[in-house]
Protein: Histidine--tRNA ligase
Organism: Psychromarinibacter halotolerans
Amino acid sequence: MAKQKKQPRPKAETPKGFRDYFGHEVTERQEMLNRIAEVYRRYGFDALESSGVETVEALGKFLPDVDRPNEGVFAWQEDDDKTWLALRYDLTAPLARVYAQHRNDLPTPYRRYAMGPVWRNEKPGPGRFRQFYQCDADTVGAPNVAADAEICGMLADALETVGIPRGDYIIRVNNRKVLNGIIESVAELQKQMTFPEGLSERGQREFETLRTRLIASTDNVMRTLDKFDKIGDRGVRELLGTGRKDASGAFIDGLGLPEYVADGFLAFLHAKGETNEVTLQRLREVVRYSQEGLQGVNELEEIATLLARQGYGPEQIIIDPSVVRGLGYYTGPVFEAELTFEILDEKGRPRQFGSVAGGGRYDDLVKRFTGQEVPATGISIGVDRLLAALRAKGRVGGTAQGPVLITVMDRDRMGDYQKMAAELRGAGIRAEVYLGNPKNFGNQLKYADKRDCPLAIIEGEDEKARGVVTVKDLVLGKALAEGMSHEEWKEQPAQEEIARGNLLAYVQEKLG
């Protein structure tokens, strides 16, 4: 009989693009989520926890991956009914499904916040994982821009609540309608230049061809404008026109748009002035031939006015036409929160931290389910990026304090030790009894050190008979122990004998 081949052991490794989170990392994230949730609740938003799995049909358009378009989700097909299911890639698509499904039971407007992991089947990279946390707040059913202004103010409050003070962040606001207005305006301008006497039948056809071409190029235009910070005016102009060579020398085809079109889009990018009033004036000039564009500018003006009345100044929230990312998805105002302080990159070079939140108005998402347009606006905070920013500034991080450790000197007296732990826990103090092998007392102290325990409590037979316990201050002990002899260490104040009845009060005082 042939000998069965031994099955290899599985590798103990995290899948590519994922990572594990331990102790203080999980605690820091939860504390941040709690603070943000409290801000959302103050604004009247209710919590929603939707399924982590949705049908692919409900999720709709996959998030594009540069290397594998339309492969942005983790999906599988059910055996029985052949339905395709997928892990959610954000918290907004599930909201649209929830609202469409339960709209008769929900208030209008419906204001909800949601927090949790999302999954994207994209190529991982440094700091880019396939599972990460998002923290969203959305208003569904409110068509006026007061809802957009409220989201901006709430985002500012959330950032300051978690430890990002004024001066370390800026929320930039733009409007998709303004970009659409530029396309209409440059088409109208071309019509006036080419057909000053009015459109003939042939001229009308040529004009409509130009206008259709510009509208069809919208997504590509936005991707080009999004590169403005990296390639500047010349690079944007080249990509809108005939093309350009990148840093490697490879030629990138341009969109082939006329020069005057590039002029219009660059005027849009440079419209930001020293004040919101100047910016709005410049934008009105850029989109003067478009009713939709002017409507977008008016909406931005109303947002700025509403925020100013609530006390939010230009050091917190500004109108900025250079915010282009996301305009392909949103239908109206769009917001982006950027941290303005510098950090050091992996090579020790200073750079700004960048964006930690984004959002805007999306009035078409629920329509996929209902057939009717439902106005909606919201924001999504990248929790992991925000935590990374706070760690970079030293506002969170390091190791979390462990529990008070009750050592075991006599296995037969486990009930006494558990009673001590229960007293401390009843007062809200983290405490645990050592449950490893107590034979070697030194191992218990090593365990306490590894857990970053602040105190260790000892009660042997002698202490029990005298009605006392010994408390070791492990934090102070670490600071004092270097260079001390064992006898000197025993005499210093990092170890103290107290009455058993005073244990709780003593520990509370030591822990502050």
User: Anything to note?
Assistant: The chain has a mean pLDDT of 86. The longest helix spans residues 23-42. DSSP finds 19 helices and 18 strands in the chain. Residues 49 and 337 are 25 Å apart (CA to CA).
